[in-house]
Amino acid sequence: MTKSELVQRIQQLKTEKNAVILAHYYTLPEVQEVADYLGDSLALSVKARDIAAPIILFAGVNFMAETAKVLSPDKKVLIPVPEAGCSLAESCEAAALAKLKEQYPDHKVVSYVNTSVEVKALTDVCCTSTNALQVVESIPREQPIIFAPDRNLGSYIQKLTGRDNMVIWDGACTVHEEFSLEKILQLKRENPQAKIVAHPECKAYIIEVADYVGSTAGILEFCGKDEAEEFIVVTEAGILAEMRKRFPEKNFIPAPPEDSTCACNECRYMKMVTLENILSCLENESPEVHLDESVRQAAERSIQNMVAIK
Ligand code: 13P
Ligand code: SF4
After folding, report:
1. Fewer beta carbons under 10 A from the terminal one: N or C of the chain?
2. pLDDT digits 0-9 by tens, 67-97
3. At what angle do helices 239-246 and 216-225 cross, to 10 degrees?
4. Is the full-model pTM beyond 0.90?
5. Within 10 A of 263 (CB to CB), how many other CB atoms are there?
């Protein structure tokens, strides 16, 4: 099938089955085009909770589809590629987090949504890169915290809040850890008017040189409002499609990874989702997300605690 035939068939099936497609900004541009809602991890979680349609197809990685199912247990949540994981979620196994909790029994657990449903079930309150600061600030200052699993986001929040009572998990996003400071500074020398915008999953020395640090939705908003016409974008390159669509008059320069021979500024998991596997998933209404009900309920509490803070 050609691309336009695939798109047409997907649109037809969405209407026939009353299905909606949620997609993250990091997915392929053609996947973003067939989405009913495109967003960052927080917006997509909220959308998954509020949507009325009986079928949700999640174009993204598996923790995102799991989150949708946690919040919408009565809906059919489809995931085209269940093996599309996330290096952060993989760095934090529930059994290991349970052990750490035993070691620090008086700590509250704040987990990034980039975690498995089992980890969310062991969590007091989830956060995303959009609301991590508000979530941590909502916890009394004297209350110690375990922050999992992103060490870069955790250290960034620790620095912003000045809290010294945070135990930070040693996980990282393999995409955001790959950016080269040297190459970013070189780009800045070549484009002195450009502003550097970075995701908080980046290493501290990258965050230090950024003009703006925020989630994908935050970065998009900043680029729209700021008077600058050029931006060096230090996050997964999929977001460039939406940036160029929203702000065609501005120039967006993707930050390169250390190793220029690899496409390391692209998330290989997000790029596993294609028009072909979306179509097959809609046709077969499979693969579908299934969760253990007691784990789901425990995970729901930690996500609802987050949404309530927003
Ligand atoms: P956002 O919270 O900005 O969506 O980023 C999360 C992320 O890294 C998705 O992979
Ligand atoms: Fe996970 Fe990083 Fe990919 Fe986001 S970009 S899904 S944090 S591996």
Report:
1. N
2. 999 999 999 999 999 999 999 999 999 999 9
3. 30
4. yes
5. 13
